[in-house]
Design goal:
It is a single chain. By secondary structure, the chain is an all-alpha fold. Helix content is about 50%, strand content about 0%. The protein has helices spanning about 10-20, 35-50.
């Protein structure tokens, strides 16, 4: 048995897990911390605001 550790983008994780399960591999996903998830969500929201897909926050929102 061989152990392989790789890092992939979150958006590709589902595809890679599905592929590995089809060939009988065991997949251990590393735990993601809550702060990491919150930072990722904040960056996504900022990107949406810059693209005009989301309304920018005002002082009233804070």
């Amino acid at each position: 048995m061989t152990t392989l550790t790789i890092e992939i983008k979150d958006k590709d994780a589902g595809f890679v897990k599905e592929f590995l399960s089809k060939i009988g591999a065991k997949v251990k996903a590393g735990p993601t911390s809550q702060i990491t998830q919150e930072i990722a969500q904040a960056l996504k929201e900022i990107k949406e605001m810059q693209q005009g897909d989301r309304k920018s926050l005002s002082l009233k929102d804070i």
